Amino acid sequence: MTRIRFLVSYDGTDFCGWQKQGPSAGASLQQTLEEALSKVFDQKIDLSASGRTDAGVHALGQVCHFDVDVPEERFLKWDFCWAMQGVLQKNIVIRKAWIAPADFHATLSATHKTYRYFVYNHRRANPFWARNSHWVKKPLDLEFLQRCADQLVGEHDFKSFQTAGTPVLNTVRTIHEARWERRSANLVQFTITGSGFLKQMVRNLVGTQLQFEKFQREPTEIAQILAARDRQKAGATAPPQGLLLWKVFYPADLDKRCRPL
Amino acid sequence: MTRIRFLVSYDGTDFCGWQKQGPSAGASLQQTLEEALSKVFDQKIDLSASGRTDAGVHALGQVCHFDVDVPEERFLKWDFCWAMQGVLQKNIVIRKAWIAPADFHATLSATHKTYRYFVYNHRRANPFWARNSHWVKKPLDLEFLQRCADQLVGEHDFKSFQTAGTPVLNTVRTIHEARWERRSANLVQFTITGSGFLKQMVRNLVGTQLQFEKFQREPTEIAQILAARDRQKAGATAPPQGLLLWKVFYPADLDKRCRPL
After folding, report:
1. CB distance B125–A85 less than 8 Å?
2. Distance of alpha carbon B139 from its chain centroid, rounded?
3. Is A258 among the domain residues?
4. CB contact under 8 A, A127 and B95
5. pTM (predicted TM-score)
6. Distance from CA of A42 to the nearest CA of B (A)
7. CATH of residue B31
8. Which residues of chain B have pLDDT under 70?
9. Are residues A76 and A141 both part of a single domain?
């Protein structure tokens, strides 16, 4: 058995999310990638990812792994990414691949992740950003938003920002950075890096901060929302199309033991 | 009758082009916009654009005009763009509108146009540029491409770069600028401004230049292709998704007589 790790980018618009949602929901990313792998290797493949992304959410640097009954040597003379591109549509691209040690696990070995959320901030919408951003008409006060984001950094219980669903015992997470910045004249970007994220946590954090900005609520009240451990206290969930899984981080020693293909 | 001029951006991916192509080809931009206008004004509206765009081709700054049986005063108290957005999908956005003088004509008054063509130039494709660029794997030599583009500037007969279709008597056009540049690490942009463009002329010019670069053909041979007045001598048509109608220009005095809404 050979363990393969790969980096994949996808436009999530036309998918029901990472995980299969039932026959009527459309293709899931996991299913689409597993089917492509099974075609390329002519054997059933089970795929693990660093985490699930919701319907409509995108990834620049999702990380996955799978085991396949093919000797390592065969991979070294062969362009795996290219072979996969032959059976995938244009909205999924395998960017890099490695032969991974047996103790590498895309989900369990991940130490932290960075997400980005894009807001298109102009009086008129932009059709070229419609699939990849949330449109906000009123000019955003980034300094104000940054004061909100500052409340999130550190170790906190994020239960108030978790959408009901999969039950999680421990809702404490550590946020390493939370930054609002203007990427170009009309594009605003929120970057958040943390040890892990609860269900729809980034979208709930973005939605809440945008509501605080809209109604000019005192940013320090975000601490009270965190303390309440109550989803009702936080704001609405921001729409999925603005969210992008930017990068997943693994321990340096594990990275070193992955051999690039 | 009031004449309205407007500026519209659209993602052409899901359209059969500007003009209606028959029932099986999917919606055209003209039809979609005319239906939206008819809904907003509750009367039949005929729409003129600066020119047609092909299936899959995008526009940032397409210019249109129409006449409507509504007094001018009504427009001044009303957000026309906003009303249109209510009946349009996210892939078309009306950005600005003006009350235009009766002698303004979106097609006939246009003096020149700028198109841009985007090439995503990296070993691996990018799913977020799949709809808006042509993917070229091999690193492009921009200096070489610029030497090709330099051959195009000036007044020439572009018959060799015209795709058969609508017959045009005069195939002489003037190119004011033709520029290749790197917009970001992996994105290459070709900008061309001219007095007018024949059917698929920009895509034929891009396809030919990319072939010259690939096979390192002497750039000055482009002059021979122009002189031949024979489509067979030029290269392949570059795919539509890389092309964007960037801006349409009108005489300054006509612009001045258009009153912004």
Report:
1. yes
2. 26
3. no
4. no
5. 0.92
6. 24
7. 3.30.70.580
8. none
9. no
